[in-house]
Amino acid sequence: EAKAQWEAAKAGIRTAKAIPNPSFGFSATKAQGVPQPWTLTYGLTFPIELGGKRRLRVKQARLQVEAAQLAMADTAWKLRMGVRAALTDWQQAREVSMAATREAALRGELLKLQDRRYALGEIGAPERASSALEAQRAEAARLVALTDLHRAASAVALAAGFPLPSLQARLDAEPAPDLALPAELPPQETD
């Protein structure tokens, strides 16, 4: 829409520079009580613009072009900012989803270990139930994070103006951040 306004404003400069066309008029009138009742009149008029009207029209048209260019730049900026915000949200949702997936996997492994310990009689039913509850919570958090990831991908597609299936392949191809904990913490500097 902003580009169409810019194109229309550019066309307005050409219109403003144009010299007004002369006009030709022709009319026939009937007079009462005259031996020849029909009178034919015609006229040719050449408009003369005084006071720099054309120069002012051109200046106004150029200002409209400049305003349209600024509106187009503003629209592009808003679009870029919308895409950037959507991509940032998607990146955050992806990292949360990956962390939730990793936590759910770890909680599942912990539950398996707790099940073995329960089978051997090392722990009681309450401890095993607590581990099962934590595994279920982690799985629920993983599913919520995955839903948020899909919503964020849809928001990126909407902001960028692309259909989600064509954009999904690009989003999936992005390298995943490394969420593994470091083996050792770096030494802290002391003052």
In order across it, which strands form the biggest sheet?
1-2
* Percentage beta strand: 5-15%
Question: What percent of the residues sit in helical stretches (DSSP H or I)?
Answer: 55-70%
Sheet of most strands: 2 strands, antiparallel
N-end to C-end Cα span: 59 Å
Q: Class by helix and strand content? A: mainly alpha
Order of helices and strands: HEEHHH
Q: Give the uncertain stretches in residue-range form.
A: none
Looking at the structure, what is the overall shape? rod-shaped
SS field, number of helical segments: 4
The tally of strands reads 2
Identify the notable features of this structure and list them briefly.
8% strand, 191 residues, mainly alpha, 68% helix, single chain
Description:
Helix content is 68%, strand content 8%. The chain is built from 4 helices and 2 strands, in the order H-E-E-H-H-H. A two-stranded antiparallel sheet has the order 1-2. The longest helix is centred in the middle third of the chain and has 68 residues, at 53-120. It is rod-shaped. The mean pLDDT is 83.
Summarize the structure.
The chain has 191 residues and is mainly alpha-helical.
Mind sketching the topology for me?
Blueprint: H1 2-17, E1 23-30, E2 38-45, H2 53-120, H3 125-160, H4 164-173
Helix pairs in contact: 1-2, 2-3, 3-4
